[in-house]
């Protein structure tokens, strides 16, 4: 008995650490959404991972940083009326976003080294833990080139890079969350997949695809057009859905098609969540899965309401950020269910 208790305690310690890391990633995604919606993402022109940890500290440093910003297309084409005071308003959001990224690296590295030395994390498990900062580094690198894409000619980031940047954050979150759940709920020797596992996994994949389509909506600012629901203006199928050639480009570059796809995916996912909830109520689920099934429905309802309100009001910052935040929460609940039903 004494040999089991320390292992459970160690697993719990590692799981709590990973869940704290998930909370930091979640905050990063939400703050990143606010940064994008407020037009703050292109305010920090220079990329200095180490020295850039400090913001301007004097009036002269602020003036120097502002003068660098004045050379960008965003200042010339979007914010030519800005003075230093206006610039500070958008600078601080992007600075906090990058600072949180740096703190996330420290919050991962120090506990990992401690847990590795104390053998809370056995050597064979090191690769999946080291994959976490590798994905985080890739996400930061994509963020760098994403910002760079908006500082040449047109002050708008590439929707492809923005979506990849978002998806890498979700991947880091998913890996940390999955490993944490595996520590808290280790599988038994005779564990098997629940009969509802396949449908749960399929629903999770659909939600992930819907989130991906939302990245393209955000990148193209496609939520600024057709601000009506359920129809798009006067149309169920608006004109221009396939205006670009070749055909595949419409799904990634055409604002009309991208918004239409996100609507269809979101409504489909919502309907399937309702169907899933009715079926899951009658299934013999593990005790920890039942509250999650209800949470999935409640979160999906909130997400749909926020999505419609965000669209009707042409994407105000508060609603847009809330829609992104609840989307990630919905992703987490679905992932939790996949884990709960994978081995029962």
Quick structural gist:
The protein has helices at 4-37, 59-69, 73-77, 84-117, 126-149, 159-184, 197-220, 250-253, 255-282, 289-312, 317-342.
Write the layout of secondary structure elements.
Elements: H1 4-37, H2 59-69, H3 73-77, H4 84-117, H5 126-149, H6 159-184, H7 197-220, H8 250-253, H9 255-282, H10 289-312, H11 317-342
Helix pairs in contact: 1-4, 1-6, 1-11, 4-5, 5-6, 6-7, 6-11, 7-9, 7-11, 9-10, 10-11
Q: Would you give an account of this structure?
A:
The protein is mainly alpha-helical and 344 residues long. Helices cover 70% and strands 0% of the residues. The protein contains eleven helices and no strands. It is flat. The model is unreliable at 1-6 (pLDDT under 50).
Characteristics:
single chain; mainly alpha
Q: Which regions are unreliable across 5 or more consecutive residues at pLDDT < 50? A: 1-6
| Protein structure class | mainly alpha
Proportion of residues in helical segments: 55-70%
Number of β-strand runs: 0
The average pLDDT score comes to: 90
Number of domains: 2
Q: What would you report as the Rg, rounded to the nearest angstrom? A: 22 Å
- Termini separation comes to 24 Å
Please count the helical segments: 11
N-to-C SSE series?
A: HHHHHHHHHHH
């Amino acid at each position: 008995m004494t040999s089991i208790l320390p292992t459970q305690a160690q697993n719990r310690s590692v799981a709590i650490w990973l869940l704290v890391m998930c909370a930091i990633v979640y905050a990063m995604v939400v703050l990143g959404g606010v940064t994008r919606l407020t037009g703050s993402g292109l305010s920090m022109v220079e990329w200095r991972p180490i020295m850039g940890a400090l913001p301007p500290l004097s009036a002269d440093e602020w003036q120097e940083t502002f003068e660098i910003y004045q050379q960008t297309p965003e200042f010339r084409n979007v914010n030519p009326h800005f003075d230093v005071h206006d610039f500070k308003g958008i600078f601080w959001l992007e600075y906090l976003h990058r600072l949180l990224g740096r703190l996330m690296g420290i919050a991962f590295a120090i506990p990992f080294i401690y847990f590795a030395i104390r053998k809370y994390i056995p050597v064979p498990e090191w690769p999946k833990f080291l994959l976490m900062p590798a994905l985080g580094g890739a996400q930061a690198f994509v963020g760098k080139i994403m910002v760079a894409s908006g500082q040449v000619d047109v002050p708008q980031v590439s929707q492809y890079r923005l979506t990849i940047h978002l998806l890498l954050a979700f991947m880091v979150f998913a890996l940390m969350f999955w490993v944490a759940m595996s520590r808290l709920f280790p599988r038994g020797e005779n564990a098997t997949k629940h009969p509802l596992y396949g449908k749960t996994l399929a629903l999770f994949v659909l939600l992930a695809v819907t989130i991906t389509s939302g990245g393209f909506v955000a990148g193209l600012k496609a939520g600024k057009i057709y601000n009506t629901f359920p129809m798009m203006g006067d149309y169920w199928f608006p004109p221009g859905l396939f205006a670009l050639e070749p055909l595949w480009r419409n799904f990634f570059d055409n604002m009309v098609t991208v918004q239409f796809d996100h609507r269809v995916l979101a409504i489909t996912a919502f309907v399937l969540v309702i169907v899933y909830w009715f079926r899951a109520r009658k299934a013999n689920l593990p005790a920890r899965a039942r509250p999650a099934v209800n949470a999935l429905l409640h979160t999906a309802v909130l997400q749909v309401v926020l999505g419609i309100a965000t669209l009707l009001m042409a994407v105000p910052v508060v609603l847009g950020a809330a829609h992104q935040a609840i989307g990630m929460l919905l992703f987490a609940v679905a992932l939790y269910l996949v884990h709960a039903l994978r081995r029962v």
